[in-house]
Amino acid sequence: MPVMDRVVASIPQPFRDVALRHAELIKFAIVGATTMVFDLTIFYSLSLTVLESKPVVAKVLSGVLATILSYILNREWSFKNRGGRERHHEALLFFTISGIGVLLSAAPLWIANNVFDIREGATSLTALVIIDFVLNYVIGNLLQMAFRFWALRRFAFPDENGRGVIANPLDEFDHHGNPRTDTELNDDDLDPDGQQAPFMGHS
Questions:
Q1: Helices (H), ranges, 79-124
Q2: For residue 84, is it left (φ>0), alpha (ψ between -120 and 50) or beta?
Q3: How many angstroms from the chain centroid is the CA of residue 202?
Q4: Nearest Cα to 156, choosing from 99, 93, 102, 98?
Q5: Residue 124 burial (CB < 10 Å; 0-12/13-18/19+)?
Q6: Would you call 83 helix, strand, or coil by DSSP?
């Protein structure tokens, strides 16, 4: 998503440094929000039409599609610098971690219902919907996102610069937020301090 990199590049200092220090976390959160909207869109599109009588099937399908989208976006954007695993091992770890994340996201609702019987105290449908939303999409999502962010960096994408791409994506832009040419990028690689090294002749 080069558009987001360009947006970050245009942020004034010192806020840009803060964004850079937490770039992976910010991108991971954006991907999480995107896939949640995607999941809800697919679920309601199916459960209110062709799968109206089978909402569980609709949820399974939307969840699987959202997880696949999450893998693609996280691998190619959130953790695009990271690697260290063969592709099939990486994918297996990603989906395993995501599966654990699903269980963690459901844990607050399960505890509230089975330990504290919190739903028994709900006096209206609106109260019940609010309770489920807070437990599932607020507390549950925060819990699973924190776990997945740590676990994906630790296990699925352990090598910080494993794919040999630019470590800082904003190196691709100048201080005005404009794309830099290949010549400028190569010059920086050869002379990162901006000073031309003296020519050393052969004796």
A1: 87-114
A2: left
A3: 51
A4: 93
A5: exposed
A6: strand
Q: Between the CA of residue 5 and those of 10, 77, 100, 158, 175, what are the distances in Å?
A: 9, 10, 30, 22, 13
- The type of residue at 5 is D
Handedness of CA 25, 28, 34, 36 (dihedral sign): negative
Burial class (CB in 10 A: 0-12, 13-18, 19+), 90: buried
Angle 66-126-45 from CA coordinates, rounded to 5°: 30
Establish how many alpha carbons lie within 13 A of residue 183's alpha carbon, considering only the half-sphere containing its beta carbon: 0
pLDDT by residue for the chain (203 residues), tens only, comes to: 556 666 666 777 777 777 777 788 888 999 999 998 998 889 889 888 898 888 778 888 888 899 999 999 998 888 888 877 788 888 899 999 998 988 888 888 788 877 877 767 667 777 777 877 788 778 888 898 899 999 988 888 887 765 655 445 545 545 555 555 555 545 554 454 444 444 344 44
83: β partners: 159
Contact call for residues 166 and 2 (beta carbons, < 8 A): no
Surface-to-core class of residue 55, CB atoms within 10 Å of its CB (0-12 exposed, 13-18 middle, 19+ buried): middle
* Burial class, 98, CB count within 10 angstroms (exposed 0-12 / middle 13-18 / buried 19+): buried
What distance lies between CA 185 and its chain's CA centroid? Answer: 27
Q: How far is CA 191 from CA 166, 167, 185, 198, in A?
A: 16, 16, 10, 11
